[in-house]
């Protein structure tokens, strides 16, 4: 039997389940309480099962209601994501580009490419959302960004398309007065029993560093963890430990007066361009992708461009 429920019925069911009263749910949906009550009654009649138990103070779900709400919540989320993709596409055709990326890439990789785009689209509104790797992927998947540039550390998640852009190699960051400052290169195994300043586990950097250290049985003497690049640079410069940083991060640590020594064997981050399979690129986003993947790329130490 076909179920004749519209989107407003599904939203009403989810809102009432979430807020527990008709008054609060109606306010959240910005509809009259009588309209919400009518939508719930229509839903229960069409489904032929009671979804809620009413009391004078609260509304609670029936067992059937709990199952229906789970399905309704998923359907509403999918519709909202699709609408975000649609709105993003339309905004892009009107001179808007939303890019999600890592903080280090926002500061080092993006600027020359965005300047090149601006020369062709001088009135373009560009929004750069810099955040941690997991949040960058989510921004594309949920339609909050047209494209992303970020690190890929495993299989490509379902629903995404990627294009390899670059790989950046890892270096040891040491103060200029450190005994290793004059070394042409270092091995990962030499970091055993050495104090390190590390990035947080949520960064795109630390999991690769941890894996490389484990592979070479290099257990640091102690570690001081920090969230952002500037803090890591300052702590290394202050003598709290050595840092292990990738190529795109090096320009952001110039302020600290550090020396960067290549690590061997080579370990690299994979930097990729990410888009959603469910969202067509706008003309502006297409133009930007062509610029990023084109032949004119900055020469950065420790960065090897691909494609």
UniProtKB/TrEMBL annotation:
Q: Which domain of life is it from?
A: Bacteria
The family database entries (InterPro entries) matched by this protein are listed as: HTH-type_LysR_regulators, LysR_HTH_N, LysR_subst-bd, WH-like_DNA-bd_sf, WH_DNA-bd_sf
Keyword Metal-binding carried by entry: no
Q: Where is the HTH lysR-type domain?
A: 5-62
Sorted alphabetically, the keyword list is: DNA-binding, Transcription, Transcription regulation
Does the keyword field hold Cell wall biogenesis/degradation? no
Gene Ontology CC terms, in alphabetical order? cytosol
The molecular function terms of the Gene Ontology recorded here are:
DNA binding; DNA-binding transcription factor activity
Family, according to the entry, reads as follows: Belongs to the LysR transcriptional regulatory family.
**The protein's name:** DNA-binding transcriptional LysR family regulator
Q: Which organism is it from?
A: Janibacter cremeus
């Amino acid at each position: 039997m076909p179920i004749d429920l519209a989107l407003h019925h599904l939203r009403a069911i989810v809102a009432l389940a979430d807020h527990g009263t008709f008054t609060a749910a109606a306010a959240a949906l910005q509809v009259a309480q009588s309209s919400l009550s009518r939508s719930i009654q229509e839903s229960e009649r069409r489904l032929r099962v009671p979804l809620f138990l009413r009391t004078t103070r609260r509304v609670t779900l029936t067992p059937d209601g709990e199952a229906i709400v789970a399905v309704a919540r998923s359907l509403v989320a999918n519709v909202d994501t699709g609408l975000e993709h649609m709105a993003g596409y339309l905004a892009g055709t009107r001179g808007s580009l939303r890019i999600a990326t890592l903080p280090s890439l926002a500061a080092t990789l993006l600027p020359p490419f965005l300047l090149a785009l601006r020369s062709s689209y001088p009135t373009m509104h560009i929004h750069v959302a810099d955040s941690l790797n997991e949040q960058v992927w989510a921004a594309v998947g949920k339609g909050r960004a047209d494209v992303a540039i970020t690190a890929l550390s495993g299989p490509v998640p379902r629903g995404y398309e990627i294009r390899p852009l670059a790989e950046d190699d890892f270096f040891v960051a040491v103060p200029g007065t450190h005994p290793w400052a004059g070394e042409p290169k270092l091995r990962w195994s030499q970091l055993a029993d050495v104090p390190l300043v590390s990035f947080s586990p949520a960064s795109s950097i630390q999991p690769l560093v941890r894996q490389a250290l484990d592979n070479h049985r290099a257990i640091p003497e102690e570690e001081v963890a920090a969230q952002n690049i500037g803090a890591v640079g300052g702590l290394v410069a202050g003598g709290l430990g050595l840092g292990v940083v990738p190529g795109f991060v090096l320009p952001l640590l110039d302020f600290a007066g550090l020396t960067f020594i290549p690590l061997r064997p080579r370990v690299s981050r994979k930097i990729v361009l990410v888009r959603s399979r469910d969202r067509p690129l706008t003309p502006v986003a297409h133009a930007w992708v062509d610029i990023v993947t084109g032949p004119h790329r900055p020469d950065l130490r420790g960065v090897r461009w691909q494609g």
